[in-house]
Each structure stands twice: as C-alpha cells, then as structure tokens.
Amino acid sequence: MAESKSLPGVVPMKPATPRPGARPGNCAACAVRGLTVCAPLSPAGLTEVESLSTHLVLEPGQTLFDEGEPADHVFNMTEGTLKVFKLLPDGRRQVTGFLFAGDFLGLASQDTYAFSAEAVTPARLCRFQRRQLDGLLNRHPEMERRLLSKASHELAEAQEQMLLLGRKTAKERVASFLLLLARRAAQRGAPVDPLPVPMSRTDIADYLGLTTETVSRTFTRLKSDGLIKLLPGGKVSLVRRDALEEMAAAG
Amino acid sequence: MAESKSLPGVVPMKPATPRPGARPGNCAACAVRGLTVCAPLSPAGLTEVESLSTHLVLEPGQTLFDEGEPADHVFNMTEGTLKVFKLLPDGRRQVTGFLFAGDFLGLASQDTYAFSAEAVTPARLCRFQRRQLDGLLNRHPEMERRLLSKASHELAEAQEQMLLLGRKTAKERVASFLLLLARRAAQRGAPVDPLPVPMSRTDIADYLGLTTETVSRTFTRLKSDGLIKLLPGGKVSLVRRDALEEMAAAG
DNA sequence: CGCCCTCTTGAAATTGTTCAATAGAGGTGG
DNA sequence: CCACCTCTATTGAACAATTTCAAGAGGGCG
Fold it and tell me: Topology of domain B168-249, per CATH?
C-alpha cells in the first residue's frame, strides 16, 4: 500500500517516479541483450521490440507489482536485483526468487500476478504490455522459443529450490544460496570473488525458509570455519568454494 | 525398447512391459485431449502429432526416466498418476510434483532430465522424440503457445509449493495438499468426494517436506477433528472443506 | 554526535524428527 | 476361505534442529 508523496517543499532524491518512472528504451545499446529473451531477435525484431517497450527505473524497496494485481505487463531486467515473493494472510513471506540482469518476469497463467516483485537494489527494466506480447511472440517465434527455454530453466531452478526448502539443513541452504549467487553472477559476467550479497538477512531468510537469526548464525559459523569471509558493504568471499559445494549437497 | 504383445494364448494382466511398453497412439480417440498441449491442434496437426507419438504404459513403481539421463523424450500423460522427484546424494528425496492426465512433462533446459519420474498408479503416456519437438512446435505455434501457458502454470504452482515448503506448518501443508488433489481432480473431471489419494505416506511426506510419521499424525488429527474421513482404498473425504481451506492458509 | 535499523548473539521454547513398537491392510498359498 | 507374511501406516516417547524471545553490537545517515 502506500503512495507517492508530492508534498510541497520536499525534494525527492529519486526521480520521484510515482510508481516506476518510464523513458523510451534503447535496445541497440542494451548491454545485456545477450542474456535476455531479446537475444535471438533480428535487427528488425529488435526495432519492433524497442518501439513496444518502455524503460523503468526502480529504487531499492520500490514495488514493481503486487500479487493479485492485474498482470498488464511483462518485464526484462537490465540492471540490478529484484526479489519476487508470496505472502500468507498472516504476513509470513516466502521469497521465491531473486532476479538479475537478463531475467524475464511477469508471465502469468491467470490475469493477475501470482507473486509480488520489489527492487532489492536500484534496478532498471524494460516493460511491455502484456496484450502486445502475444502478437510479438507470433511475429518472432525465435523469441517465443527463447522464452520457453527460459521458463524451462526457471522450472528446473524452482525444483532445485523445493529440494532445498523441503530437505536441506540450514547450513546446506545457506551454502547453496551463496553458490547460487556466485553462479548467477558469473553467468552475467558480474564480480564473483568479492561476491555482492545485496539482499538483507530477512530477504535471505525468507528465501531459504529460515529466520534471520538462523541465517546470521549460519553465516557466522561458515565464517569461523574459514569457508567464507564477510566483507563490508554486504560482500562475501567464498574462501573455500569446494567445501561450500560439498556442504550444499547440490544435486 | 519395449514392445507390443501379440503372443497367442497369453493374456497378461498387464502388458508386462520391461520399461515402458509402446504402442501406436490414437489421438482422435484421446479422452483427455482437451487437457493436454494437443488441445488447440487442428485435425491435421493432430494427425501429425499422432504419427510422431508412441503410447506407453507404466505400472506402479515403474520408472519413466531418471534425473541426469539424456532428455530424449517429452511426454503427455493420458491416465494415472506420476510423481517427479529429486534426490540428494545421501538419499533424501524431494517430490517436486504429482502429475495427472493432461499434464506434460520432460521439458529440460539442459540435455538431461532435471528430475526423475516414476509411476504412482498404473499410467499411460504419449511419448515424443525431443528432437522432433522443435519442428513440431514450429509448425504448430498454437501448440507452442499452449506449452508456454502450461509452463507458466507450473511456475505459479511451483511458487505456491515453495511457500508451502518454506513457511507453512505441518497442518497447513497437509490441508493444502488435500485441497490441491481435490482441485486437480475436479479440473480433469475425476471423482472428488471420496477423493482418491493414491500415493503412499512416504510420497506425501517427501512432497510436503515432512516425515511419514508427521503426515500420519496430521491425518489422524484432521480426522479426529472431523475435517476429513479416512476411507479404505486410500480414499479421503473432505468433510469440512471450508475448514481445510482456512487451515491451508492458501494464497 | 546520536539515532535508527539491521545484524549478531544468547537462552528458552517448540515443532517436527528420530527411534521404537504396534497395528492394519493386502496378497499368497495351503 | 482362512492363516500367514510382509509392507505400510499409526502411535508413543525421547531428542534435536530451528524458532522464538530478548538483548546487545555495529553501521550508516541526518
């Protein structure tokens, strides 16, 4: 809930985008195109996509959309980190994923979003009208194929996460999480050694099905066991990645 | 592998198929076509699909494929119940889903299956060569769209399951599970009042991230609280579905 | 410099697990 | 058709991992 504030005398730090602020996109210059669903598009296709898309900026904590809202748009992340999550009526929260540059989101099997999405770090996205997606995919089967491929990937990741949530211990969960972040960072060519871990302990806990206290304790133990180093600025060094891999009991 | 049986004089109870036994498909007579990815196909498309597919029969406990195996086929379930699951090296198991008539499976983002699949009840499936799927989807965009739609559904269900595994109590998990089975049964027009629950307590436990003991105790409590009735033959009557819904804390 | 918020740390409480029997159900063979 | 056998489900009691409750430490920002 909540709203923009445009009270006089207040000079907002950020573009004060009501909800996300929009500007025209620029696909030609897109640094992460190779990671996105746009990757296989021809120059002509790219031009069309650009004409249909809008660029958004989100500040940390800003909501992209809420579960249950009409699913009018789909998005491509171009920069930053998002979290997607579901809530129970009493406020319990499950973060079902973190999204990074190149990730697509907004597919909905109903006409409403099945989860909420919120920025973890400053983020940029391209937005498309859902209504235009169908035609776009019809005209660009290579894009649809790519989307299907991304969906398959996501499905596999979701199952991995179910394994984690249903069967792994706290230590295994945290180790798996760090390795996941590292893999995803490597994938998109982001720094890995001092691995940025931009999300809060609460977000991590809600992702791993634990409490912040347990996450914190587990980090501390991994640190005192010499497997990781906790660096300032929310960065982590995976000192003994091999040991982490073993601990993660990864499939 | 696998074969038709036309041996004279022998009337096997079951086709006694080593691994899955195969026979030609018959899409025209398919009773569950409306539930499958084949639903939107034209008669011509249907004919093509039929020519590319083989029909399989699985007996309870039979493996369809194992995690890590080359993902050479994709499948449409036409009858019965399957479970799909992942294993940790030490044997811990997470059932990531139960599949029923109309469900599609086998999408893999790698060239190997990301999970194992095994029959819970006698089951029938149509099998396609993965290599032929691409061409098929190219020629039948309506089928590809349908597949994408199914994938979106699955993604949403996976997130619901993550919420369950990460944040729900044992009671909530079991209630959610029964309601899921009931919803899915209704969807495909299967009996709902005495709801068939064909999977073992172990399978249920591995699906819900619990132990068989906890599942059993929870069933017992739901029963003595008058919310359900445990009937012979693995059937359950959801006596107070409203109370179950509330307990499930469903999103 | 001090406030606020997040993270860390400690101790007690709990849910669910583990270990251990007992009870049932289904299937087989006499 | 019944007795027996085996596998699965149920139930009980002790145990353990994680949560909950409660402070305290650290860090960033105004």
Answer: Arc Repressor Mutant, subunit A (1.10.10)
